[in-house]
Amino acid sequence: MSKSANINPAILVWARERAGLSVTDAAHQLGFKDSEKKTAAEKLAEFEAGEKLPTYPQLDKLAKLYRRPLITFYMAKPPAPANTGEDFRRPTVEVTRRDNAILETLVRDVRARQELIRDVLEDDPDHQAVRIVGSASMREGIPAFVAKISRLLDFDPSDRSRRRGGAEDLFRTLRAAAEMAGIFVIVAGDLGSHHSAVSTEVFRGFALSDDLAPFVVINDQDSKAGQSFTLIHELTHILMGQSGVSGPPDANEVANEHDLIERVCNDVAGQFLLPDAALTNRPAVDADIDIVRNMISGTAELWSVSEAMVAYRWRRLGWIGHHVYTALLNGYRARWLAYREQRRADRSPESGGPSYYVVRQSKLGNALLGVVYRSLYDNALSHTKAAKVLGVNLSNVEPLLRQFEKTRLAGVAAGRP
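Structure for DNA-binding protein, as requested:
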């Protein structure tokens, strides 16, 4: 009897949908080709309807594409949903089932990587627990959180000289400091393909709290200025020892404990990135929205933060009303989406750009790459597990680590840690 004879066709459908793929997308990624009699999608649909059995190699491809162990396809019913921690998002935007499925898969994937890293670090006698995890409580108040994160990152929020390089440099500085403190910071907003990209309306970031290997994941669909806000927001969750998914900042009234936690995290990020020293230019009560927009733009540029974040801070202070705030946010989002579309349209195969390995290094972060690099060459981690942790094919592990080694040596030569 064929090894695929006992598979459950309904699980094939479930696994594809949980991976955020349409029948057409999945069929083409599996390498199915259109023929005179059937399209690629129709061939996959036959498997899902139980009309035809996939071969074992095809089943193996399905497992890899859908990021599921082979045993899943033989189950009578889908496995229980993965533990993604708390869902701190507010239902202000309708999120599709597909987007939530992609998000759940992303969280599950990162959690699996975290467990592999934790196993390595547990056996490392030189690695110490990250003491700040779960070290704070909401009862301490916003200023206490800001002070703790300032000490953790060795960053004075009021020192504008640390922000002279712009929003991208600020994010790079804060991320490197968080990684030095023992927190793994990954930038990811899809499952490895732009077809599975999820917007910042679905999630801004998520935290996976752990005393040995805390992870923060930031949606790469956001601007660098927005990513700095999300990083501080998620660090606040880590300080409270919380794991969970966060959505866009919301200045509306809180309705439950989750809303209150999110409000604290947003306010900590707001006060860290835009301290009281930045609040010297208040708009008039009856100021026209164009005047308010220009004032916000000036403040954002001066402090290397997003305009949306300045608007959030002003809204929380009562400097602008709900309608003005909402109109500003809608405008900022529309402008950002238009900018991204234009940038994508302007990009051509001939235009070049950073290599695959440079992009992967930027997304994974030097902390994660550093642990894999050391563990692999100390024989504490296999190449197969390294590929899983890094989210790349086995053949890409060595080239990616060579890219990491090259930039690390360049940093040492330049006097950087």
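The longest helix spans residues 97-122.
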